Amino acid sequence: MTSIIHSSFPQPNAAPQRDRVAFVQACWHRDIVDQLRDSFINEFSKLSDQKVDCFEVAGSFEIPLHAKYLANSGKYAAVVAAGLVVDGGIYRHDFVARTVVDGLMRVQMDTGTPVFSAVLTPHDFMSEGQPEFFKQHFVKKGAEAAVACADTLDKLVALAS
Q1: Which residues neighbour 80 within 8 Å (Cβ) at sequence distance 6 or greater?
Q2: pLDDT, position 96
Q3: Which of 18, 30, 37, 92 is catalytic?
Q4: ∠ Cα 11 15 20 (to 5°)
Q5: For the chain, what are the domain ranges?
């Protein structure tokens, strides 16, 4: 005989019910990363009534720890991370970028709070004209992150209903 057990999915941190989103930004290459933040806030305000609280950290490597504290605070429906990791010729930037993204995924999975990564690492940043290109590119990525965040939060609310 087959029995059916009715239960609902556990709602870790009940993230969709919160009315704020945390935006954590690395300060390295601020002139570029600010473009992403401003674009995110502008687009997100069109898609959601949730407020955005902005936080700054020194570099991208520091973002996952701050994201974890923010997710665990119980105040935020989601955490958005923004940074630019470039190859400055001193260390392997791809290792830093991977560590950051892996850390952000771990925060999301451990806390149940959605975490969005807009921490980007270009193949070629040091060439002439690239900083200006990336300023415009980060505007696009900020809007994309806002759409992804709003859409995910809407879907999580629907799943919880």
Answers
A1: 21, 22, 23, 24, 40, 115, 116, 118, 145, 149
A2: 78
A3: 92
A4: 170
A5: 17-120+127-160
Helix (H, G, I), strand (E, B) or coil at 132: helix
pLDDT digits (tens, 9 = 90+) for 59-96: 999 999 999 999 999 999 999 999 998 866 556 667 77
- Among left, alpha and beta (phi > 0; psi -120 to 50; other), residue 129 is left
- pTM attached to this predicted model: 0.85
Joined tokens for residue 120: 């980007």
When pLDDT is averaged across residues 134-145 and rounded to a whole number, the result is: 95
Superfamily of domain 17-120+127-160: Lumazine/riboflavin synthase (3.40.50.960)
**Is 92 in the active site?**
yes
Residues 6 or more apart in contact with residue 149 via CB below 8 angstroms = 21, 40, 44, 48, 78, 80, 114, 116
